[in-house]
Amino acid sequence: MDSEEENLDADDIQALLDKANGDGNETGVPADSEAGTPPPAAGIDEMSPEDRANELLNEVDAGLEAAVSGVPMSGSNVRTSLDDAKPFEFADLGADAENSNEKVFSIGMLDDVQMNVQVELGRAELLIDEVMSMRKGVVVPLDKLAGDPIDIIVNGRLLARGEVLVLNDKFCVRIVEIVAADS
Whole-prediction pTM value? Predict the structure, then answer.
């Protein structure tokens, strides 16, 4: 580098900040030239079944939040006016669907999707001092009573409640209630 220092003007500084914050892109095009355009998504065939399932769950969550708040999602086709509304016409699902060579989605495609399942016996709030002083044999009281149903959480969402059993010297969980999706 020369003995002279390089001076950056306000536009150069803003471009560097945008790039550092992820607002720009690799080609140097400023972020505001692409406003409103979502980043290109990977093709559906390139995604693993677990990624597809998580992406669909995220889209559903975003749609539900938008529906509840009454504010349409950015980039969505949701209209706030019903002036152009007309009844939807369903396609005929007769013999044409059976004879077509198109790939049809079946629930069996999700058989190999791995999900994180957690069984929560209860919870406890502890101070850092209490956690740091824990040793072997310390008893941590939980917020549930013996015999209360335990929570079964799948991918971070409460799915069911159950009871703890012992079968062949191993802990098991018997499902006693499926929790509704809206709770």
Answer: 0.39
